[in-house]
Structures are given as structure tokens and as C-alpha cells.
Amino acid sequence: MMILNTRSRSGLVLLITSPVVRFVALLALCAAYIQGPLTKLFDFQGAIAEMEHFGLHPATLFAIVVIAFELTASAMILSGVLRWLGALGLAVFTLLATFVALRFWEMPAGMERMMATNAFFEHLGLAGAFVIVAIIDLAEGAGK
């Protein structure tokens, strides 16, 4: 196992705490919440069909709200304006959507259930990451 010396460790700390790396990491965290609503905008009938598939009615209203919410919360996180609120919002949204869309425990054993199980726990990880973003933002005093 390689142990970093003090000089290389401090260089690594400077790199990973740089504003550019921070922004790219936040962009990566928000990527699905930017790509998803943009896809829904370009295929709005598909977005409505998705809402209907999950039993969300009125489907058109849910599609509009989801698109607006995901883009707004992502913009808050990326801009730093009430980042903690946008992050907590996406954490709660992710948990709710996960329990609606990835009900692996109701599926018969097989590949589909295994994929849904993996996606379920990946989404729990995303929600956790958003909570960490909120904690950091609040700890830094930006949430005031």
C-alpha cells in the first residue's frame, strides 16, 4: 500500500478541494437530474406515459412538476444558491421516486429483480450523497 508523503498529500488535498473539482463533482451528482428532465422535455408524451405507468395522476401535471423541480434543484446545487435546500429536496425526491419505481421486493426472482435491487440501493446512495452536500453547505455557513 502506497503512503502519500506530506507534500503529495497536501497537493492532493488542494486538487480535490479546488472549486473546479467541486463543481465537476456536483455536476456529476446532478447529471441524472439534468438529463432526465431534458429527455422528458424533448419527449413530453413519453414523460406523461412514464407518470401514468407509475400511477401518478394527473400525469401531465406530475410530468411538469418533476421536470421543473429536478432542473431547479440541480441549478440550486450547481450555483450554490440555497444549495443545501436543493440537495435535501433531491434527496427526498430520490427516496420517494425509488420507492415508487423500484419495488424489487414485489418482483419475482430473476434478472429484472436483481437489476431493480441494484438500482434501488444505488439510488439510496445518491440520496445519501445529496444529504452530505447539504450537511457540508450548512456547515460552511452557506445555508444562512
What does this entry show, briefly?
The chain is mainly α and 144 residues long.
Describe what this molecule looks like in 3D.
- This protein is mostly helical and 144 residues long.
- It has one domain.
- Helices cover 79% and strands 0% of the residues.
- It is built from 6 helices and no strands.
- The chain has helices at 6-16, 19-42, 44-53, 59-79, 83-101, 111-139.
- The longest helix is centred in the last third of the chain and has 29 residues, at 111-139.
- The chain is globular.
- The model has no long low-confidence stretch (mean pLDDT 94).
Pick out its properties:
0% strand, 6 helices, 144 residues, globular
Uncertain segments of ≥5 residues (pLDDT<50)? none
Span of the ends, CA to CA = 42 Å
How many structural units, i.e. domains?
1
Nearest-integer average pLDDT = 94
Secondary structure: helix percent = over 70%
Shape: globular
Strand content: under 5%
Number of strands: 0
- Number of separate helices: 6
| Biggest sheet overview | none
In angstroms, what is the radius of gyration?
18 Å
Structural class comes to mainly alpha
Order of helices and strands: HHHHHH
